[in-house]
Amino acid sequence: xxxxxxxxxxxxxxxxxxxxxxxxxxxxxxxxxxxxxxxxxxxxxxxxxxxxxxxxxxxxxxxxxxxxxxxxxxxxxxxxxxxxxxxxxxxxxxxxxxxxxxxxxxxxxxxxxxxxxxxxxxxxxxxxxxxxxxxxxxxxxxxxxxxxxxxxxxxxxxxxxxxxxxxxxxxxxxxxxxxxxxxxxxxxxxxxxxxxxxxxxxxxxxxxxxxxxxxxxxxxxxx
Length: 223
What we know:
Layout: H1 2-10, H2 25-38, E1 44-47, H3 53-64, E2 70-80, E3 90-98, H4 109-121, H5 130-139, H6 143-146, H7 153-170, E4 174-179, E5 182-187, H8 189-198, H9 201-204
Domain HFX-2341-like N-terminal: 3-80
InterPro entries: DUF6293_C, HFX_2341-like_N
Domain DUF6293: 99-198
């Protein structure tokens, strides 16, 4: 890696390095989608032939995400080393090829905003309820609330269900648990990982702001 950086800098090419755990697939996925979003006007190419298998999978999946304008490619080396673990496993460049795309549909920006809100508000003493999510949608001007002319509680709950909670529960990103008359919303482990991967969408969409209320604010006991 240091050799590659030195060669690029010698060619007067600006280099920025980002530290990431190559055994954390969702961490790599999140870094790639974030960097691609920061360079939306540039051509972004991602080498998936280096690192670990998990990092390669994470990078490849990131490039498949519909809003990620990046191309994954694989480098074919000219030679493979055999037997000597002190030598690089591969050497020289023979060819490369772009990987075929199989687009995946990631959570929308407002869905990510709600997931982030649930993540921040869910503590050992309080779990967000659907009514909290409505209030957050109102304060953050999320499209499911702000873009509708009908502002009644019934209409707001219907849009929250159809645009946010139903898609997220179908993908197993969140759970909605009935506790008495209340419905509490929590992130699943998959939801936590997905939030890490697509948190950059919070900054991509100005309408998906972050609510400024304290983390442990008591909520209303209604739905």
